[in-house]
């Protein structure tokens, strides 16, 4: 079963949208297999957004993502990577289709309220970076 990494960004947390956003992924059929509420360190932010290091908006991106707590999660399901992305909508909320998370709750590309892995490689890398081996299974605890 495919897995993807999704992060609810600081402004969405501050606006009280955690439940609404999680609801939409769950309603779609994606299962949460790991989740944590956390502050993002400068170091983690730099690793997560390393691909954007040379972009003009890089500094703003790091400042934004470290500005308050986020919710990081791993979602699982058939075609989870693409399914999460279509549920979120286009990276630029101004171009996202109505009914998607980004279109319904945001307007600025730099404040697009949610992040999702963009492919198999980034999903594996991001899940490893944010959770390592710390993903519980569904097995019943027999202790
Ligand atoms: P995200 O999916 O978290 O991945 C990289 C982020 O960079 C992206 O969402 C946007 O929030 C941000 N981003 C991409 N392009 C721009 C831009 N032109 N200006 C500001 N932020 C951007």
UniProtKB/TrEMBL annotation:
It is found in: Cytoplasm. PROSITE patterns: NDPK. ATP binds at residues 9, 57, 85, 91, 102, 112. One of its GO terms (biological process) is UTP biosynthetic process. The active site is at 115 (pros-phosphohistidine intermediate). The keyword Hydrolase does not apply. Residues 1-137 form the Nucleoside diphosphate kinase-like domain. Its cofactor is Mg(2+). Its EC number is 2.7.4.6. PANTHER family: NUCLEOSIDE DIPHOSPHATE KINASE. Belongs to the NDK family. Homotetramer. (Microbial infection) Catalyzes the phosphorylation of dZDP to dZTP, when the bacterium is infected by a phage that produces the substrate for the synthesis of dZTP (2- amino-2'-deoxyadenosine 5'-triphosphate), which is then used by the phage as a DNA polymerase substrate. This is Nucleoside diphosphate kinase.
């Amino acid at each position: 079963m495919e897995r993807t990494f999704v992060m609810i960004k600081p402004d969405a947390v501050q606006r009280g949208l955690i439940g609404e956003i999680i609801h939409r992924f769950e309603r779609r059929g994606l299962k949460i297999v790991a989740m944590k509420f956390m502050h993002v360190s400068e170091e983690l932010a730099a690793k997560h957004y390393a691909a954007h290091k040379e972009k003009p908006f890089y500094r703003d991106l790091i400042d934004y993502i470290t500005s308050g707590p986020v919710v990081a999660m791993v979602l699982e399901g058939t075609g989870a990577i693409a399914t999460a992305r279509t549920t979120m909508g286009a990276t630029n909320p101004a171009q996202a289709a109505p009914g998607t998370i980004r279109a319904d709750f945001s307007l600025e590309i730099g404040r697009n309220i949610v992040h999702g892995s963009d492919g198999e490689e980034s999903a594996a890398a991001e899940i490893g970076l944010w959770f390592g081996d710390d993903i519980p299974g569904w097995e019943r605890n027999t202790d």
